[in-house]
Amino acid sequence: MSSTTITPEDVAAEPMLLGESAQMVSLRALLRRVAATDSTVLVQGESGTGKELVARLLHAWSARAGRPFVAVNCGAIPGELMESELFGHERGAFTGAQAARKGRFELAGRGTLFLDEIAEMSPALQVKLLRVLQERCFERVGGSETLPAGARIVAATHRDLEQLIELGRFREDLYYRLHVVPVHIPPLRERGDDILLLAEHALRGLEASGLGRVRLGFGVPETLLGYAWPGNVRELHNLMERLVILHGGTTVQLRDLPPKMLGPQAPEPGLAPADAVERGDDDGLHDLMQLVAEPSEPVLPAQGIDLRAYLERIERSLIEQALQASQNVIAHAAARLGLRRTTLVEKIRKYNLRDGSE
Hints:
The chain is α/β, with parallel strands linked by helices. The protein has three domains: 3-186, P-loop containing nucleotide triphosphate hydrolases (Rossmann fold), CATH 3.40.50.300; 190-262, Orthogonal Bundle (Helicase, Ruva Protein, domain 3), CATH 1.10.8; 273-350, Arc Repressor Mutant, subunit A (Orthogonal Bundle), CATH 1.10.10. The protein has helices spanning 22-35, 51-60, 79-87, 104-108, 123-135, 161-166, 172-178, 194-208, 220-226, 232-247, 259-262, 273-278, 284-289, 307-325, 330-337, 341-350, and strands spanning 3-6, 41-44, 69-73, 112-116, 137-139, 146-148, 152-157, 181-184, 215-216, 251-252. The strands form three sheets. Strands 1-3-4-7-2-8 form a six-stranded mixed sheet. A hairpin with a 6-residue loop joins strand 5 and strand 6 (146-148). The longest helix has 19 residues, at 307-325.
């Protein structure tokens, strides 16, 4: 949808910003402080991180909670219609305008107006928005009556606005009007165990909606923690929904996850654990290593195994893969592995992988 209006009756179901990572605890504290003001807020973060959720929380925690919350996706409405969408129009203002219509500023009243994907707004409309923010009033398209713009403005984008300013695609003066209180939402890959918390929350919600229930099998939680999540929370929720639809009532195994999540070391389809153990290769431990993307249960070779050496080889292999996938940036590799940076540095030194420095 290009625009959404939440009336006071809808506010009862307060949105939730889940997460116990340090970043999310700090984010919630910041939002509590900012919600008590009327300052303009610019929310920045990658696609799928929950920018509209943050805007809704700012509204729900503010004194404006009893008034409308109106959301507009600036990238989903054609440029020639955007002015009318924001400011409304009078009858006959343009071809097809058969009746007067209120715009989003007018509908928001003294509530909250959320301008999503603000970077997609045309230069001409940027000028008009700047004027409204400066003068706190506007006119409908084709009208002459001056109307008050009393809504609190929360804008959001996944783009680098400062870079767009350098390219001449975004007005610097509008940027500083919006950038009163900047709020950054961390990407999911940097939130550690929040990934599993959000996955479980999504699964509970899907079960409550009647879609069914799944359990996460051996190795699946670790794979979720190690994945980069380019689509962030939205991608995680979509994956949980797909798993429930396709595997409801069962335990999800690694083979049920998208291949891109398993990486190049994923086992060949159709290779059962017993097949690998019974092939009699010289290095039976290597065979087990190839099965780290587990089936339902680990397989113990008949001759037994040195468990400590096995686990160390798995750990070393995964650390090497994380470092390679992160271009040897330790902080990023640690995030993929769900480890603290200092813990990963210790393990890198333990296995003599690198000198442990960035």
